[in-house]
Amino acid sequence: MKVIKFGGSSLASSQQLQKVLAIVEADQKRKYVIVSAPGKRFDGDTKVTDLLIQYARQTIHHQDTQAVTAAIIDRYAEIGHGFNVPEAQLTPIFETIRNLPKQSYADNTYLMAAFKAHGERLNAQLVAAVFQQSGLNARYLDPKDAGMVVTDVPDDAQIIKSSYDQLAKWANSEQILVIPGFFAYNRNGQICTFSRGGSDITGAIIARGVHAERYENFTDVDAIYAVNPSLVAKPAAISEMTFTEMRELSYAGFSVFHDEALIPAIEDNITVNVKNTNHPEAPGTLIQSTREPNPHYPVTGIASSSSFCSLYLRKYLLNKEVGLGRKILTILENHHISYEHMPSGIDDLTIIFDEHQLTPELEKTLVAEISTAINPDEIYFTHDYSILMLVGENMRNRVGIMSRAATALANDNIKLIMVNQGASEISIMFGVHDNDADQAVIALYKEFFD
Amino acid sequence: MKVIKFGGSSLASSQQLQKVLAIVEADQKRKYVIVSAPGKRFDGDTKVTDLLIQYARQTIHHQDTQAVTAAIIDRYAEIGHGFNVPEAQLTPIFETIRNLPKQSYADNTYLMAAFKAHGERLNAQLVAAVFQQSGLNARYLDPKDAGMVVTDVPDDAQIIKSSYDQLAKWANSEQILVIPGFFAYNRNGQICTFSRGGSDITGAIIARGVHAERYENFTDVDAIYAVNPSLVAKPAAISEMTFTEMRELSYAGFSVFHDEALIPAIEDNITVNVKNTNHPEAPGTLIQSTREPNPHYPVTGIASSSSFCSLYLRKYLLNKEVGLGRKILTILENHHISYEHMPSGIDDLTIIFDEHQLTPELEKTLVAEISTAINPDEIYFTHDYSILMLVGENMRNRVGIMSRAATALANDNIKLIMVNQGASEISIMFGVHDNDADQAVIALYKEFFD
User: Residue A407: its chain B contacts at CB < 8 A?
Assistant: First the structure.
């Protein structure tokens, strides 16, 4: 059995859904179909999820919702009519959209979660109807009926592990089960959504739950590329990569596949295959626990992200002070902030953060609290900070990677603010100024792939 | 005024002391003379301090101390007789040596501290007598009379800051004051010694206390070299370096000048001049707060040390876990262990320690406690770990240093286990296997100095 997940662009129109239908029909093992909400049909189009957010906001502010309701209904109608789905099956979907404001919600965060989740929920119902209409033995399966229970965080829920026992009961399904991605229900039966990349997470959870042999993740690119295609024309496609490589790359900005969505797949050692709905014959990218070594390409991928900032701290005799690091980390923990890296010199310490965790207010508070706790000679935040990551299983035990990388960057006159190699054997991390980041990625790509 | 400190080899014999005398006479500003205990006169000789340790041990174990007492007395006698110091001045010194066991000590650690300290104490008395005999206006000044009060740790005392107010009273001395290095007294009047390099520390404390214009530190090398002379023949001498450079280098194995001894000098911004007793006309090495940039030599020095070990730790999703680092550091702090560096990957963390802090027993305890606290997937200590440090103020804002260094190492087929650049702008740290360390230093020296 395979779990197969389609992203929003694969489900944006009846034309796209034709391709999805063909893909599902092409392999009998594709029994679990996870669907996103309809995405953009063309540049400048609005995703159904964004329409639903608008709808939720207008509802909260008691504004007129007629236009947005119509726009949402139109999207589902176009798809349904494209497959001649009987009106009797479409009407309940439209009614549900219209009635969303009439349901009761604990508060506005639950309202927002429920409105957003209906993009996936109704699309899964529609896709199930389309499949039936096209002669497939398919049915809609709601996350509630599937047994998916999540933590009570409306916009960032986590699966509760006991759900897997419930999901296991759906293993070896004869029918094609069409399941909405992105959301499930808390113990009180309220809708809570996953975070970014939420439908990918659902697919991985279902795959783990039913012990799928493969989790196919259909999107709109032929493969995961070794580098951001907006920086390098026609970059090398990654045919095979390990879970760890994917995690290290997505950490530093690879957005194709959110690393949280890998966790359930890793836990059950399920191979993930990223494929293209528009080009399903392409082999795509396999993500699995191990892969064949390729001595010609020590580097698998190069990522960069500017979403980091750093706190620089200088204190004379810093390295002699027992407890100094712990004091700083306790302050961070009190504010529920995790740090990424903490390179230290003799008298200096840099702490690198995911910028999204911080606000100017919070930065001020941290500087004040750390100053009180350890009385540094100098302390300040820097935001002009990009992290580049060179990742590859084949870098293990190889001599000379740092030499090649640092030389490529030096030849392009790129200043290294930070270099961190040491824990993981399969990655090297470089910190550069934001302005240098793109050029640095290109330089590294040329060195290791051209 | 200058504070001038002589190491043990400069005071090992009457012949050596002649040089010391000439150096003190050569500059009227040299009013504060800090002396070590007589050191080795030749390869295979025994330092007086080591004889005193033997003496202390024999006393503690109620063994016969006649031979060792005679050997110690001989050393002072040779120097005294070499300068025709009257027996009336020598006899009290010899008597003090013989009577050491008769004094009362709080316990054996205080006994050991007092025995060891007398190497310096009696030598300072002797040197003062020699200076007087040679016509200098000189006197012995005991740390107690100078006003130096230290914390109550018999073998690792720290100066108590209020001592500086007492020492200030000795500023602008007309007389040459001969002061023993290495020890002072706690508030109860008991002798406590400094740690390694203790006489250097005394010199720096006196220099700060009397606001000396310079602290001259006489030893047996012409200068501090850019690299360990046992690895590279005739290495480049460092004519000028900053306090920070010295600290970074001594951290990673430069033993010429212990970095703790720099602290008082830095606090009062006193230039330190390392010079050679056997070659006083050589300019030596100046250590000061700033220095002239030299664009031809971005690197000032290269150090290496094998006295590090590392704890490797792997846990899936490690970087997502708030509080994990703090938990580990709290455990270290509970055992009074400071860490050096903590490079981290996505799922991995390496903590680098000064090996001297650890025992096999303690390592087991740490592994057990950390395992309980954070349940890692993998955790182990590695001792095959040397740290190399490339240090230079001129590395600041320079592009290409990492490229040159990493390429030099790669060309010699040296595997980098760790690279840490990020906090300090004036150093790069490399972790290599112990076996590769010497070759790595040589490769880096060739790259940056040849």
Answer: 403, 406-407
Domain interval for residue A351: 308-382
Same domain, A13 and A125: yes
Nearest to A420 among B329, B330, B343 (CB): B343
The closest of B46, B21, B45, B220 to B127, measured between CA atoms, is B21
Last residue of one domain, picked from the residues A156, A188, A220 = A220
Per-residue pLDDT for A82 more than 90?
yes
Closest CA to B300 of B288, B308, B312: B288
**Residue B193: pLDDT above 90?**
yes
Same domain as A323, residue A210: no
**Closest A-chain CA to B259:** A317
Indicate whether B389 belongs to any domain.
Answer: no
Length, in residues, of chain B? 450
ipTM: 0.78
Same domain, B204 and B86: yes
Chain B: closest CA distance from residue A423 (Å): 5
Count of structural domains within chain A: 2
Task: Determine whether the interchain pair B320/A338 forms a contact, defined as Cβ–Cβ distance below 8 Å.
Answer: yes
- pLDDT tens across A86-126, in order? 999 999 999 999 999 999 999 999 999 999 999 999 999 99
Which ranges of B152-287 does DSSP label H, i.e. alpha helix?
A: 163-168, 198-209, 243-251, 262-267
- The answer to whether residue B429 is domain-embedded is no
Return the CATH number at A64: 3.40.1160.10
Nearest-CB residue to A424 (from B345, B415, B419): B345
Do A98 and A209 fall within a single domain?
A: yes
- Order of strands, sheet of A348-354, starting from the edge strand that comes earlier in the sequence: A348-354, A308-314, A378-382
Q: How far is B201 from chain A (nearest CA, A)?
A: 15
Q: What is the DSSP string of B348-396?
A: EEEEEEEGGG--HHHHHHHHHHHHHHH--SEEEEE---EEEEEE-GGGT
Interface test with B, best of A196, A327, A388, A402 (most B CBs within 10 A): A402
Q: Does A252 have pLDDT greater than 80?
A: no
Same domain, B49 and B169: yes
Classify residue B225: in a domain, yes or no.
Answer: no
- Whether residues B410 and A402 touch (CB distance < 8 A) is answered with yes
In which band, very low, low, confident or very high, does the pLDDT at A423 lie, cut at 50, 70 and 90? low
Beta strand B237-238 pairing with B224-225: antiparallel
Does B94 map to a domain?
Answer: yes
Give the residue from B164, B186, B220 where a domain finishes.
Answer: B220
